[in-house]
Amino acid sequence: MQAKVIGGFFMSIQPWAIVTDLEFAKIVLIKDSEYFLDRGFYVNEQDDPLTANLINIADEKWKILRKKFSPIFTSEKIKNMIPIMVGISNKLIKCIDRAFLESIDINLSDYLSCFTIDIIGSCAFGIDCDTVNNPESKFLQIAKKVFSISSVRTAKLFFLCGFRSLAKSLHMRWTLREVEAFYTNLVTEVIEYRERENVKRNDFLDLMLQLKNRGKLDNEAENETGVVTLNEIIANVQTFLLAGYDTSSATIKFCLLELAHHQNIQDCLRNELRSVMDQFREITYEKLGEMIYLNKVVYETLRKHPPFGVISRTLSKDYKVLNMDLSLQKGTMVLISVLGFHHDPQIYPEPENFDPERFSSQAIKSRHPYAFLGFGNGPRNCIGMRFALMQIKICLATLLLMYKVSPCSRTQYPIEYSKSSMVLTPKEGCWLRIEKC
């Protein structure tokens, strides 16, 4: 393999390398991933225990924790949560129905954020947050605090990630104390209640409790990695929120904004939804599997507007780049530009166009297998990919079967990204004109 170009720069004294070649991206994410398992995020288990989660930790600790939690995210486990998602999507429609009585021009942004919060709350915590009907709930307020970013917080984040050892010796924290207290108290209380009353639910927390108490899931072989601790549960339940709240709601917003400006695609999608749902009153796992065009639309949305613009890795040891007179030193931050690859006209012709047929089976086979990185790739890909796709598709299917969306005077297009969020999200929300269909 001959890498085309590896760019780089220094952030203070920290070296950063930029991967601009898909073959080298494959090496980083798969072939030589043992060199690149560290995402470069700040972890301080003693002073900031919520940072010790599946997203942040590295090396052997990550391998053990990933192995513990992987059985939770199988297709069969996610399938059991679909009735919960469908119920919450029906609540969302009722709220939009009420808003529709007052105005046909609606900012769907808050409704969609509440939708994903309610799903995470129910599936991860086992709690009926009902933020769809109560947008002032503490649950939603805390979620917004987690994702809001200021210039001060941005500078602190760069320092924590760039000088991790120094920051740890100074006992620095990233998690806001209010956020830590909220999740610690919430999860502890729910666990105590469930164990005391022997409550069972088909959600993530129930599966985690099985790992905590027995070191394995029901009807599965013994887990060699051992039991899950209470601190691991608390840290990773919060991680499910981080991974599934703003990312999923942003994807739904982007998708609706694109569909509003591409009525032919929206009509084609709605025809498929009606065809699949004919004579069926409720969305099921099997029906979702038949929605082929919906899958293309969602992936094209993630192609054009990925939740995270880059994938970051930090070298755990010195690395010699194959066929190049170049060695990368331990500690070098390596960036893979997801936005760059997804908008490369040599990979995706006319990349600013919204074209779901880019994700037909034939088109996918014609591209480099690492041309799409919406969920990352390799051993550190998104563990909750199936869950995220399921809630996104259920929301879109439910909404578009009831409503047609089109631009209104406040719709921003082309879409600009917010600078105050840790994930890519529309700057001006999701203002759309809706009408019954």
Question: How would you characterize the overall build of this protein?
Answer:
With 437 residues, this protein is of the alpha+beta class. The protein has helices spanning 22-31, 59-69, 75-79, 82-102, 109-125, 138-147, 151-162, 164-169, 177-197, 204-214, 230-244, 246-260, 263-277, 285-290, 292-304, 338-342, 361-366, 385-402, and strands spanning 6-11, 14-19, 105-107, 310-314, 319-320, 327-328, 333-337, 403-406, 431-436. The strands form three sheets. It has a four-stranded mixed sheet. It starts with 5 loop residues before the first strand and ends with a strand.
Offer a quick outline of the entry.
The protein has 437 residues and is α+β, with helices and mostly antiparallel strands. 50% of the residues lie in helices and 9% in strands.
**C-alpha geometry:** globular
Compute the gyration radius: what is it?
A: 22 Å
Structural class: alpha+beta
How far is it from the N-terminal to the C-terminal residue, by CA?
53 Å
How is the biggest beta sheet arranged? 4 strands, mixed
Number of helices: 18
Q: Give, in spatial order, the strands making up the sheet with the most strands.
A: 1-2-7-4
Order of secondary-structure elements: EEHHHHEHHHHHHHHHHHEEEEHHHEE
Give the low-confidence spans: none
Number of strands: 9
Question: Which range best describes the helical content: under 10%, 10-25%, 25-40%, 40-55%, 55-70% or over 70%?
Answer: 40-55%
If you average the pLDDT, what whole number results? Answer: 89
Strand content: 5-15%
